[in-house]
Description:
Shape: elongated
Distance between the termini: 45 Å
Helix content: 40-55%
Amino acid sequence: RTLALRVALADQPDTALIALTHTLTAQLFYSYAEAGCLEVRPTVTPLGSHADGIENTPLAARASEAHEAWAERMPRDVADLWSFIVNLDDEKRLALLAHCAARTVNALRLPWDRKPRTLQTADRLASALALDVAKDWTPTVDSYLGRVTKAHIVEAVTEGVSEDAARCIADMKKPEMAQAAEQLLAGTGWLPAVLRTPQPEAEQPAEASASAPQDADEEGIYAVAAE
């Protein structure tokens, strides 16, 4: 029966979409891995340990609201989930699948976890989505400037504002420099390289994506990718 189901499902993409959506939804909303017969296992990586306070950001609030909105529509019994998904129109069914897929995204760039192909795909996904992190993130002392070295702060102000502005803060102590840089960079749209969406025509080689930071001070740059 398993082999027959595999062959039949491969020939019916619409039913395959229902089955995949059902399997992911059952696990992400009901925590029932056994509710579906597709051996697909979604993993949701918590981000709080990589970026303090990320759960309190507007982006996190939007993600939670979307999940809660879907949860309110779900049947109480997971046994009724298949019928619920079948009765959705095509647009809503795709929207539910997109929501489930989005919950599993992990584009964290961690210095001890080299995964060049995963990160290359994350860059491609960002490009396909025309992702603009600057709309929802700004460099502050807490989110970035307080986590990196003085040299990185000077570099950020040089890129985001001007060399003259960077020279004005270059001799400050780290806390004062970070505060000044936060004010200077406000509204500029500047992003650290790890948060920038690459241009589709200028893909970076996998080897470049795999490079790890050379010292512990740079870990803040990689951790900020969680945001």
